[in-house]
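User: Can you predict the 3D structure of Tagatose-6-phosphate kinase? Sequence below.
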Amino acid sequence: MIVTVTPNPALDLTWHVDRILPGGTHRADTGVARAGGKGLNVARVAHAHGAPVRALATAGGPTGDEFAAELAASGVPHELIPVRGATRRSIALVDEHLGDTTIVNERGLNPGPEEWAALAEAVRRSLGDAPVRGRKPVLVLSGSLPPGAPDELLPGLIRLGRNVGATVIADTSGPALLAAADAGATVLKPNAAELAEATGIADPVAGACELLHRGASLVLLSRGADGMLAVTSEEIVRARLAEPLAGNPTGAGDAAVAACAVLLARGVKDPVALLRRATAWSAAAVLMPLAGEIHPSWPDLESAVMVDSPSLTALRRPSVERTPR
Ligand SMILES: O=P(O)(O)OC[C@H]1O[C@](O)(CO)[C@@H](O)[C@H]1O
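Assistant: Sure. Here are the predicted structure tokens for Tagatose-6-phosphate kinase:
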């Protein structure tokens, strides 16, 4: 069972325009509204692959009602904690000409202590329900925290997961990324910019080692067109496609987390297997117009993923194989 937690969910609104002109007026067909936020996207992808999943999030106000209705229609098993403030919006403008997506994410409102306690209780209950055929659950904590969220929120949820033997994956940024490492999250999935910003270390391998030193077991680093890197205390492995795919990168990181969660929930722990599938699903997500979906060609993409163990010097430029560190 995979339990995903999205502490700062969003109603994702997407519009496609011919070309974005700064300062201009744009005409668009009716936009798409989806229940989003990173943990929701992870849950959608895992659910689409038949993995047992439960998505936990908060919802409030008119945007929260729309969010809840869309999520119910999606069929993804979920539980929403009612909050007083309105669910935030995330706005994506897709430039059809350039193929670029411009995103505005509202910061979100901080629910009160009772709502955070209710979310933690839902996590505890869901993890308790989780054992499926004797397998330990996977707890996924994904996305930003609203401003003012308690510092203890993420570490508390991570400890809750660890106490029941769950594998914990955290995909977050800023001080929360360091806090997740300190609390012993099993897998962390920052992108290169998030890693550098949180650790203050420009070199990605040194930054990943800092997270391992603090308590994480595996750092999966997404590097855009350069693919992904898996760093453990024993090895550094790189994976990428020979030719990066063009498309919509929104939600590519969420698909990578979903790939990891699905394999870990099946008991697969080999970093190379996790990295290979995460790279393939991430690429397959780039081929889809909306976050939370991946293209059915993912098995072909997985066979096309090149894996190698690069030298540290090569990593300061971008390349693939397996070298002990
Ligand atoms: O929590 P944030 O980092 O603000 O990210 C949220 C946003 O990212 C996405 O999950 C895409 O990765 C969108 O669905 C959107 O809601």
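Confidence is low (pLDDT under 50) at residues 318-325. The longest helix spans residues 113-129.
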